[in-house]
Amino acid sequence: MKTDIEIAREIPLLPINEIGKKLGLSDDQLVPYGHHIAKVPHQNIDNRKVDKSNLILVTAITPTRAGIGKTTTSIGLTLGLEKLGKKTVVALREPSLGVCFGMKGGAAGGGYAQVLPMEDINLHFTGDFHAITSAHNMISALLDNYQYQNRHNGKGLKQVLWKRVLDVNDRALREITTGLGGTLNGVPAESGFDITPASEIMAIICLATGVEDLTNRIESILLGYTFDNEPFSVKDLGVGGAIVVLLKDAINPNLVQTTEHTPAFIHGGPFANIAHGCNSAIATKMALTLGDYVITEAGFGADLGAEKFLNLKCRTAGLSPKLTVLVATSQALKLHDGVGPEDTTKPNLDALKSGLDNLKKHVENLINFGQSVVVAFNQYDFDTEEELNFIRTWCSNQSIPFALNSSFKDGGEGALELAELVVKTIDENPSSEITYTYDLEDSIKEKVEKVASKIYGAKKVTFDNKADKMIKKINKFGYDRLPICIAKTQYSFSDDPKKNGVPKEFIFHVEDLIINSGAGFIVVKAGSIMRMPGLPKVPQANTIKIENGNIEGLS
Fold it and tell me: Domain 128-246 belongs to what topology?
């Protein structure tokens, strides 16, 4: 089969105004970025239409290191629904350069289920990530200047919380010292870099409802504490308006097309292991305004992305999916039996059976949220008929709706079984109200304990001294009623990436908490999770190049 980028290059793209017309958008409602990309001003959202559309969440079982095909499934389902005559839109996250040049090489779907132009989407796109990086680091520079200008008068900050960000995997920048080289270079201080998808401004862009809300959220960002131990925010710094100016275009979602020319919104890109892992609420609501069926995804496994999508994004944005699609693969199931990554493509029915515990746990979690659940099994050429028949029968015996998905190889035709099942399930039992895992009135510890026990299956939660001290601050300054966003490994229900399957009787360790008052949630750091990833031994950057005028190496 051809590579993703070969397939993408062979598909003639429609002008972006034709994609807009499919959604009922006129040319003056689009802001073109070249011939095949446009921004759609957020003012086109009609909240009266949002609740009338069918929102479908795509999530997954605990994934392999190469992923599990959620984006491909999301796009494939969109193509399948279009073939059934449904007006369908997909709303996805923007890829990070850290991902593209690090482990994966791209995040725009795969095969014949991609969003296009994939090279632009995977690289600089419309500059949203750059705008967020610039806005974040502008605050850092202005805060450093504030410290420098007030270094002798006692008006500076006792503690600075705000770091810098960069959309590059660079472990050397996790911990740094700034202001060295004499007084002309500023005030020496310890700091560090997070990756741009972990920036609070990324979360704010993905949760804001408009410019006014964006301004309020930016001004609410907690930057540090004064010598009187009082919170100091962007509003106190007096630069909120300037930061919003840098984000005036980034707040608007990006319209592109799929391999079969269906409309797609790509906007925002927080990771689910270190942030809340969902595309922007604005893009989701725009899609719901313009389409009858809207497909969106949440990052990594359902214990991370779907939990945050439901407990955090939906609660904040007033959304509720009609159905959740849970993606599984034979490789991921075998991995949860302890099979090595190099052997997961080999027939092994016993390992597949053992891995079904992980699938079952995710299904149970989603049902406990009040969701109707459909299992989509991403089919590969190495999957045997025996394995496929077994998992189909197992799902039937568990009363779990099941469909094969081969959209990677067959495009929309390969997702027709899944599309028909999705429509049938929604018609028979549309989910509408979410049963949240915790109440906002719960204490921070109660919220963490409820997610850890109900979703992950932890026996106990422990809080380090650093975390306990932060909880006292959170309570003191009135942030304790915010929802939580747990940052943990994506490779296990636990905080230990080596614990496959469904770990039992484990202790969940909370290392630290971070107040994201602008985004409106508390980040809970568990285990040894890093907010600035490192590069693998052989990064994907080693294969990316321009050859004969074409970009190669993206996937």
Answer: Domain 2, N(10)-formyltetrahydrofolate synthetase (3.30.1510)
- State both tokens at 421: 């099942």
> Where are the CATH 3.40.50.300 domain residues in the chain?
4-126+250-428
User: Which of 55, 48, 162, 76 lies closest to 411, judged by CA?
Assistant: 76
Q: In a 3-state reduction of DSSP, which class is residue 110? A: strand
Query: Does residue 435 carry a pLDDT above 90?
Result: yes
Q: Is the pTM of this model over 0.85?
A: yes
Q: Where are the alpha helices (DSSP H) in 238-347?
A: 240-246, 281-290, 307-308, 314-317, 330-335
Give the residue range(s) of CATH 3.30.1510.10 domains in the chain. 128-246
Instruction: Among 245-254, 301-310, 331-340, 391-400, name the one with the lowest average pLDDT.
Output: 331-340
What values do phi and psi take at 133, rounded to 5? -60, -45
Which whole-number Å values give the CA distances from 144 to 1, 159, 268, 494, 543, in the listed order? 53, 12, 27, 38, 39
DSSP 8-class letter at 455: I
75 exposed, middle or buried (CB, 10 Å; 0-12, 13-18, 19+)?
A: buried
* pLDDT, averaged across the chain: 95
**Is the bond preceding 347 in cis, omega lying within 30 degrees of 0?**
no
464: left (phi over 0), alpha (psi -120 to 50) or beta: beta
Rounded to the nearest 5°, which phi and psi values hold at 516?
A: -105, 75
Sequence letter at residue 337: D
Cβ(485)–Cβ(521) below 8 Å: yes
* 3-class DSSP state of 210: coil
Give the phi and the psi of residue 523 in degrees, each rounded to 5.
-80, 130
* Alpha helices (runs of H) in 150-258, residue ranges in sequence order: 200-207, 211-219, 234-237, 240-246
Distance CA(333)–CA(331), nearest Å, equals 5
Q: Do 352 and 387 contact (CB within 8 A), yes or no?
A: yes
Q: What is the pLDDT of residues 314-337, one digit of tens each?
A: 999 999 999 999 999 999 999 998
49 residue type, one letter: K
Q: Could you tell me what percentage of the chain is helix, strand and coil, using 3-state DSSP and rounding each to the nearest 5?
A: 40, 20, 40
444-526 architecture in CATH?
Roll (3.10)
In 276-335, where do the E strands start and end?
A: 293-297, 323-328
In this structure, what token pair is assigned to residue 540?
């994907």
Q: In the structure encoding, which two tokens stand for residue 210, read together?
A: 């408009």
Note the CATH number of domain 4-126+250-428: 3.40.50.300
Residues of the chain with CATH 3.10.410.10: 444-526
For residue 117, cis peptide bond before it (omega within 30 degrees of 0): yes
pLDDT at 105 over 70: no
